[in-house]
Specification:
- It is a single chain.
- It contains two helices and three strands.
- 11% of the residues are buried.
- Helices cover 49% and strands 34% of the residues.
- The protein is an alpha+beta fold and 71 residues long.
- Strand 1 and strand 2 form a beta hairpin.
- It has one domain.
- Strands 1-2-3 form a three-stranded antiparallel sheet.
- The chain starts with a helix and ends with a helix.
Length: 71
């Protein structure tokens, strides 16, 4: 699988969770990737492990965009 395909898969998972009403409530960077916690959906909370740097940058950009809207 190419690097873009891996990123596209992770981006799709992020977007699907956000479309279901989840919000990002926590992030933890590890050597294995970034663990992103989503809350607010039907089953409660979901944790997603992002392995690609582009997906980590994407979710971080979404968090900062949300913070700017809140101000």
């Amino acid at each position: 699988m190419s690097a873009y395909d891996e990123f596209a898969k992770e981006k799709q998972e992020i977007d699907a969770l956000l479309d279901q009403g989840y919000t990002v409530t926590g992030m933890l960077e590890t050597l294995d990737g970034a663990k992103v916690k989503f809350d607010g959906g039907e089953p409660g909370s979901v944790e997603l492990l992002l392995l690609t740097a582009d997906a980590r940058k994407y979710v971080t950009t979404l968090v900062f965009a949300g913070l700017q809207k809140a101000q």
